[in-house]
Amino acid sequence: MTPVLAFLGCGSMNGSILRGVLASGVPVDRVRATVRSAESARPLEEQTGVRPYVTGEDPEANRRAAREADVVLLGVKPVGVLELAREIAPALRPGTVVASVAAGISIAALERALPEGQPVVRTMPNTPSSVRRGVVSVTPGSATTPEQTAAVRRVLEAVGTVVEVPEEHVDAVTGVSGSGPAYVFLLAEALQQAGERMGLPADVARVLARETVSGAGELLRPEDADPAALRRAVTSPKGTTDRAIRTFQENGFEDLVAAAAQASADRSAELTRELSGD
Ligand SMILES: NC(=O)C1=CN([C@@H]2O[C@H](COP(=O)(O)OP(=O)(O)OC[C@H]3O[C@@H](n4cnc5c(N)ncnc54)[C@H](OP(=O)(O)O)[C@@H]3O)[C@@H](O)[C@H]2O)C=CC1
Ligand SMILES: O=C(O)[C@@H]1CCC=N1
């Protein structure tokens, strides 16, 4: 029997997982969702067929969804996660697994906010989950059995690739893949702007940038795809790409990417100090 999944807070991230889960064939009646406002509930219902419980209209919404669930995914902004965990604590069954997608909320903080022994899984997903092309880390809590971790893994494997990491690596995962889609979209934006600066009409520049980034992403899809080999296949000696790649490298491209990923990871660690109290 498919477990009942409750997406508490269903915005960009949990909404992406919800869409991917539905696209994988999980029936709508095995899914619960909550949002704060009717304005957010409407488009979610129109797009997914799931009618969210609205906390602004029903103070019991989160507890109701949690009570009905086998796996709960906490998907509100980091600052609200522990409060949400405390809110649903009385409604949880002892075996209900509580997964968090939040940056900066440690397993220890989550466990402190929940009934003793409640199984917890910390995850760090990303938004391509909506098209079942996400990549997500999972880290089980101290009271979580391998079967309970596997239950969360099965949910997430429906929306992408799952890696299990120790908690000390979650900041780095956030810096690479949690925030990572935004770096790729920034590259697409910058390529479009470059095209426009060279005189291309905006609509042409947009389609060239979008198809280049998504097409290159497709080439990276096979498990054995090697980005360096794919790059070399575009780069003729002394040709145009060679000149462009040199321009990137002379201007510190690799260092810039490393600094950006590190900045995201550092912010994740900072959030943990601010919000998790450990
Ligand atoms: N966005 C991303 O790419 C990623 C985000 N994350 C994590 O995901 C979490 C959510 O971020 P994101 O999806 O971007 O944020 P959003 O603002 O897009 O979504 C937050 C959702 O929570 C709802 N909400 C707010 N308060 C409550 C409440 N008390 N009870 C129930 N629902 C509530 C909001 O409803 P309403 O719209 O009505 O206010 C909204 O649906 C964060 O913790 C973040 O760290 C992790 C990896 C990637
Ligand atoms: O920007 C953020 O804080 C969240 C976490 C990872 C991606 N988005």
Any descriptors?
P5C_Rdtase_cat_N, globular, 278 residues, 13% strand, 8-stranded mixed β-sheet, 12 helices, 53% helix, ProC C-terminal domain-like fold, Pyrroline-5-carboxylate reductase, binds NADPH dihydro-nicotinamide-adenine-dinucleotide phosphate, 2 domains, binds (2S)-3,4-dihydro-2H-pyrrole-2-carboxylic acid, alpha/beta
Plain-language structure description:
It is a single chain. The chain is α/β, with parallel strands linked by helices and 278 residues long. It folds into two domains: 5-166, NAD(P)-binding Rossmann-like Domain (Rossmann fold); 180-264, ProC C-terminal domain-like (ProC C-terminal domain-like fold, Orthogonal Bundle). The chain is built from twelve helices and eight strands. An eight-stranded mixed beta sheet has the order 3-2-1-4-5-6-7-8, sandwiched between helices. Helix 5 links the parallel strand 5 (97-100) and strand 6 (120-124). The protein is globular. The relative contact order is 0.11. Residues 103, 174, 178-179 line the site of (2S)-3,4-dihydro-2H-pyrrole-2-carboxylic acid.
How is this fold's topology laid out?
Layout: E1 5-8, H1 12-23, E2 31-35, H2 38-48, E3 53-54, H3 61-67, E4 71-74, H4 78-88, E5 97-100, H5 107-113, E6 120-124, E7 134-140, H6 146-157, E8 160-164, H7 170-178, H8 180-197, H9 202-219, H10 227-234, H11 240-250, H12 253-276
Parallel strand pairs: 1-2, 1-4, 2-3, 4-5, 5-6, 7-8
Antiparallel strand pairs: 6-7
The structure holds NADPH dihydro-nicotinamide-adenine-dinucleotide phosphate (NDP) and (2S)-3,4-dihydro-2H-pyrrole-2-carboxylic acid.
